[in-house]
Specification:
8 helices; mainly alpha; globular; two-stranded antiparallel sheet
């Protein structure tokens, strides 16, 4: 049986956070990010941490191709492109708390949980406990600006 745990976020563990990618990360995001309406399972116009967790669990299960309740390096790399494979190794190094070379859903969710929670609260500008489309768009815009600034600094 799959390990079930609470998070406020995910491929943030498989995808350690920037505010723009928060919803995607907290839902074990990355390429193929779900549309807002899919993440907003209750249709209330906001994405809650619980909805993000549910999406993360589904993505974890989809990535766990051998259904053993763990994500191995091979399973993680199969879901990434060449540029992201370095990130996979970094993720495992940071999140694999028992050092067995594979990740449980619990390990992924625990990795960086405080940062994810803080990022979620920062994006939730109206304090509702959920992220609406405007808050996500504002977070994405800010992240794009930060990436542009970082690229300019490197150039």
């Amino acid at each position: 049986m799959k390990t079930q745990v609470v998070l406020a976020g995910s491929m943030s563990a498989l995808m350690v956070m920037s505010s723009a990618a928060l919803a995607q990360n907290m839902g074990f995001g990355g390429p193929g990010q779900a549309p807002f309406a899919t993440l907003d399972a209750d249709g209330n116009g906001e994405i809650s941490p619980a909805e993000i967790q549910a999406r993360g669990a589904l993505r974890f299960e989809a990535a766990d191709t051998d259904n053993d309740g763990f994500l191995s390096i091979a399973e993680l790399e199969a879901r990434t492109d060449a540029q992201q494979q370095r990130f996979v190794m970094l993720l495992i190094a940071r999140a694999d708390s028992n050092r067995d070379g594979k990740l449980t859903l619990e390990e992924m969710r625990s990795a960086g949980a405080q940062r994810r929670d803080a990022e979620f609260r920062k994006l939730d500008t109206d304090g509702s406990g959920g992220l609406n489309q405007a808050e996500l768009a504002a977070g994405a815009q800010k992240a794009r600006q930060n990436r542009s600034a970082q690229s300019a600094d490197k150039g």
